[in-house]
Amino acid sequence: MWMGFWYLFVCAVVLILIKHHWSRRKIYQLTCSLHGPPALPIFGNALMFWCKEEDIFERLVKVVNNYPSPMRIWLGPKLVVAVKTAHQIEKIFTSSSASSKDDLYRFLKVFNGDSLFTSTGNEWKRHKRLIAPSLSSKYMESYVTVARRCCRMLVEKVGEVANGELIDIDYYVYRFYQDVVHETLTGHNPGAQHGTMDAMISLCHEAYVLLHSRMTKAWLHPDFIFRKSANGKRQSYITKSLRTLLCEHIKLAPINNNDNEEFKSVYLRMLEEIEKHPEMYGNQNLMDHIVTLFSAAEDPTSTISCYLMIMLGMYPEIQDRVFKEIREVFGNGDVIERITFKDLSRMHYLGMCIKEVLRIFPIAPFIARKLVEDLDIEDNVTLPPGSTILLCLYHVQRSTEYWKMPDEFYPEHFLPESVANRHPYAFLPFSAGAHSCPGQLFAISTIKAVVISILPRFVLEADGTWKDIKIKADISIRPVDGYKLRIRRRIAHSS
Ligand code: HEM
Predict the structure, then answer these.
(1) Atom number, ligand 1, closest to the C-alpha of residue 434
(2) Which residues line ligand 1 (CB under 6 A)?
(3) Across the beta sheet with 71-75, what order do the strands follow?
(4) If 0-12 CB within 10 Å is exposed, 13-18 middle and 19+ buried, where does residue 79 land?
(5) Which candidate in 101, 202, 310, 456 could, as Cys together with 105 as Cys, close a disulfide (CB 3.0–4.6 Å)?
(6) Cis before residue 438, ω within 30 degrees of 0?
(7) Ligand 1 centroid vs 5 CA: distance in angstroms?
(8) Which residue positions does the secretion signal occupy (predicted)?
């Protein structure tokens, strides 16, 4: 009797597999023309990524390097197509069949709730209509007043360690951004630069690692399993703590003294907008937006500022040019009080340096989109619906095809004539299309403010070249050994 049962069981499994493969025959046909590593039955190429979490990024970079674009990777039954040429990336960003974010983004819901990262369709449109204007150039001058005040404290804190010893600049810059971002969003400055936020900062770091860990562990993908797991419980604790804190800051805001009467927090701006036009925005959870903006803003801005300071430390002649530009635009002496949004836009060379940092160290090295319909990406190459498209910004931004000196730190890549001669989709640090970053003006302005405050007082020194920086990735890419710098006081005659 048992023999009969097993026989029937095996037949049933074989039939199910045949039916499954038959229903996917179109996908297999279309992927025949794509290059990629040899795939095993059932696992596909998933075992290539069976390694320590911190090594996954490096492996992905290598495997994408090894094949022409577009290339395919099978993660079990999931088809991932990686594209790394500017014209293919343009096709993806401009196609309506690839405008949806990949399913991986739903994991952000645990942390951010329903906001830009996790919503779709009309709901996402209503959210973006509310959020994007609150970060527009119209209000940037008032946000710069917040950054300016926090810069003063940053310079004081950096002054305490400006003795030529090796330090990790992330400690200071991260706390600076906590103050700037909390105050801009909620209206309250928590005093992170005095150490008041250290516990929350380590919780946030932990949340980002948990998020990345979930993305890379298929068994934690189903919500009901994740919620019951130790990681899920921890994530929920951190989320609650962060939300409570941001709510408290919003309540504390009115008693906070801002030196600019025009200043209004992003929260207040959104609230007023909803009150004025309730029919336009419908029901929106403002706290979800504030948590989303907080997590989207604090980590990348701080990361890019730190990378930039190391680059200036590694390339003293570039640091000198930035210093000279500060003198030309803001004059001599202490310039912090003179920093305005209008004058920040006159810092062209510094802007080029920031772009060069974003080229080499893109915060989002890969962007994932879900394909909902067939997409012809090349003559005779059609990508099938249901596949995940991986836009490899990391590769295109380091490719010899688009960059004169891809392996150098070379801000001249962003001279107007070089930009005009390059494919516009070869440099997309803030993404492109409908889902592009609404915070880029805020990011660039505050990063510039940091450098303009620091350089008139201090000289930065770092060892090696950028090629010596070994990178690891969680939700962002970071140097394995931290952001190591030596800081010295600038002697008077050189200022
Ligand atoms: C150097 C700093 C920053 C970089 C490099 C950066 C980069 C990006 C990128 C690449 C995306 C698209 C992600 C995707 O499509 O998967 C994005 C989206 C987003 N960013 Fe930024 N960002 C930065 C700073 C900021 C700041 C300061 C804010 C807010 C104040 C912000 C808010 C957002 C939001 C809300 C989205 C989601 C947009 C949407 O889905 O419509 N970012 N950012």
Answers:
(1) 41
(2) 116-117, 128, 135, 292-293, 296-297, 300-301, 304, 363-364, 367, 429-431, 435, 437-439, 442-443
(3) 71-75, 78-83, 388-392, 366-370, 100-101
(4) buried
(5) 101
(6) no
(7) 56
(8) 1-23
**How confident is the model over 333-348, as pLDDT tens digits?**
889 999 999 999 999 9
Element spanning 165, H or E: strand 163-168
The separation between the first and the last C-alpha atoms of the chain, rounded to the nearest angstrom, is 92
Q: Which residues on neighbouring strands pair with residue 72, listed in sequence order? A: 81
As for how many domains the chain has, the answer is 1
CB atoms within 10 A of CB 17: 12
> How many CB atoms neighbour CB 368 within 10 A?
16
Res. 261 pLDDT band, cuts 50 70 90? low
**392 annotated as belonging to a binding site for a ligand:** no
- Give the CATH number, domain containing residue 340: 1.10.630.10
**Per-residue CA distances from 35 to 64, 73, 80, 375, 485 (Å):** 10, 9, 12, 17, 43
Q: Is residue 212 part of a domain?
A: yes
Q: Which DSSP symbol is given to 168?
A: E
User: Smallest Cα–Cα separation from 92: which of 422, 359, 373?
Assistant: 373
Half-sphere exposure of 82 (CA within 13 A, CB side): 25
In which band, very low, low, confident or very high, does the pLDDT at 495 lie, cut at 50, 70 and 90?
very low
**Where would I find the beta strands (DSSP E) of 289-387?**
366-370, 375-378, 381-383
In a domain, 99, yes or no: yes
Most confident residue range from 17-26, 312-321, 329-338, 369-378: 312-321
Report the C-alpha gap between 283 and 126 in whole angstroms. Answer: 10
**Residue numbers of the domain that contains 197:** 85-387+408-489
Residue 472 lies in a domain: yes
CA angle 431, 437, 438 (to 5 degrees): 155
The residue whose CB lies within 8 Å of the most ligand 1 atoms, and thus the one to mutate among 437, 446, 448, is: 437
Locate 261 and state its tokens: 């009467």
- C-alpha distances in Å from residue 85, one per residue of 159, 305, 424: 45, 28, 11
CA–CA separation, 406 and 473 (whole Å): 21
